[in-house]
Amino acid sequence: LQTRMQSLQPDPKAQYRSVYEALKRIVLTEGFWRPLRGINVTMLGAGPAHAMYFACYEQMKKSLSETLQQGGNSHLANGIFGVGFGLVVKQRMQMFNSPHKSVLACIRTVQRTEGFGAFYRSYTTQLTMNIPFQAIHFITYEFLQEHINPQREYNPRSHVLSGAVAGAVAAAATTPLDVCKTLLNTQENMALSSLNISGHLSGMVNAFRTVYQLGGVRGYFRGVQARVIYQMPSTAIAWSVYEFFKYFLTKHKLEKRT
């Protein structure tokens, strides 16, 4: 839904006023399973990405907090960690009337027609977006935990709430960069041809300029509702599962020592 709603010049049949309308029309006209298009690509990267994500989070948070605040929690440390972390095939398959029937077919077509570099056109934009997103995300989560769970005990409700709010705030703040990333990943033919842009669009600066030419300031916030709705349960689930396993494994380790 987010990919569709971020389209700058969508097909008349793919113009939606709200997330609910988008979901309803996609299911009715394209089939019940269409909203799950690209899920296999997402799942392939989710496991190792989250394993590295939270392992580095714990280590960096501990090291930086000790350095910056002599063992206490440091918002600066949380922000610095967020700077270090954060998909063309997925978004190509999610576009309206996408010609790609499978992941491998999409990869072959893009590589044959646009070259291997097509998979990395939005790489710098993705990295640039991850800097503010993760910084805001982690600072907000830790800030909320300090206020609603100051003892830092295992509290599922506090982890879900903090994770959801942190994801929503970070998602809303970085929507302009996400819109540019989507444009670079999808290379919307209608949008580019309307500006007489030949070839393929590349570079973050060009993406920002193109988005403004096509939609003005409002164009940078296309799909913000879908992005926030997507990130809230995503980050809430990630944090609650992470905190559960952290609590479970730590408790088990302490019991073995005892």
From TrEMBL:
Superkingdom of this protein's organism: Eukaryota
Pfam families: Mito_carr (PF00153)
Location within or outside the cell: Mitochondrion membrane
GO BP of this protein: iron import into the mitochondrion
Keyword terms of this UniProt record: Ion transport, Iron, Iron transport, Membrane, Mitochondrion, Transmembrane, Transmembrane helix, Transport
GO cellular component: mitochondrial membrane
Catalytic reactions on record: Fe(2+)(in) = Fe(2+)(out)
Primary location: mitochondrion
PANTHER family listed in its UniProt record: MITOFERRIN-1, MITOFERRIN-1-RELATED
Family statement: Belongs to the mitochondrial carrier (TC 2.A.29) family.
GO molecular function: ferrous iron transmembrane transporter activity
Name under which the protein is recorded: Mitoferrin-1
Function: Mitochondrial iron transporter that specifically mediates iron uptake in developing erythroid cells, thereby playing an essential role in heme biosynthesis.
Solcar repeats: 1-63, 65-147, 154-248
Membrane-topology descriptor: Multi-pass membrane protein
Gene3D superfamilies the record matches: Mitochondrial carrier domain (1.50.40.10)
